[in-house]
Amino acid sequence: MQDTAVTADDGVRLWASRSGRGTSGTTPLVLCHGGPGLWDMFEDVAAMLNDRAAVVRWDQRGGGRSEPCAGPWTTERFVADLDAVRRHFALQRTVLLGHSWGASLALNYALAHPERVAALVYVSGTGIGPDADWHGAYEANLLARLGENPQRLSRWRELPGESRERAVLQWSADFADRERAIEHAERMADPWFPINFPCNKALNAEARQATGTPILYAACQALDLPVLLVDGERDIRPRSAVDSLERALPRVRRVALPNAGHLPWVEDPHGFRDAVMTVMTAAR
């Protein structure tokens, strides 16, 4: 594994790591983590795929191991940062895999630079329809999952937003396996970095303005590259939200993993790897 600092075009340093080599002709894989305002949690994904391709992970601007900065917190800026990562590793074209907010980032990058993307893997995203299509149901499902343990729900409500313990409790709702949910969430929080709440607030607000617009639908309808949508069927974010994106894309395939939640590679690693490998093999 090779850790490095990538310098964005405005001078901000971004943490990145490259592992694996793959075989001759294999397109490199670049991973875009969720958030916004979090950090890379894709070590397991890199480990399961770096025998087949070079895999690049990175911490997005202002989060994790990347340099603290004051933004700007815009999708356009994050797309430019992702392109800086691509250039740093001298990658001509990549398979892009994004998770949750990172799925939206990867999609926006593909829309901006389709010639630099061989294929897109959109994992646990929330589609391109209005925020109202899914967010209210997500909040209700979150409270229901946490409420399975009333003491856990009460503790979550009393903790400050920046608390690691609160994050672990909230992230535990993202797993279908309720017995191992806290264990899985603890792994997400190791290592722990401060959550970048200004980044989170700004990018979520921007997303609410961008989704559901005719411009976004039209751009997705014109995206001429293979896209794989991967869902965990027991994600607390309604999977119907992704229908809007599936309908718009001209070259799309969808895989639903029945016993997985929001991080499907954790709860169904074999199913997840098999799905991603079909895209990586075709993208040679």
From TrEMBL:
Keywords: Hydrolase. This is Alpha/beta hydrolase. It comes from Streptomyces prunicolor. It comes from the Bacteria. The keyword Hydrolase applies. Belongs to the peptidase S33 family. Residues 28-268 form the AB hydrolase-1 domain. One of its GO terms (molecular function) is hydrolase activity. The keyword Glycoprotein does not apply. InterPro entries: AB_hydrolase_1, AB_hydrolase_fold, AB_hydrolase_sf, Peptidase_S33.
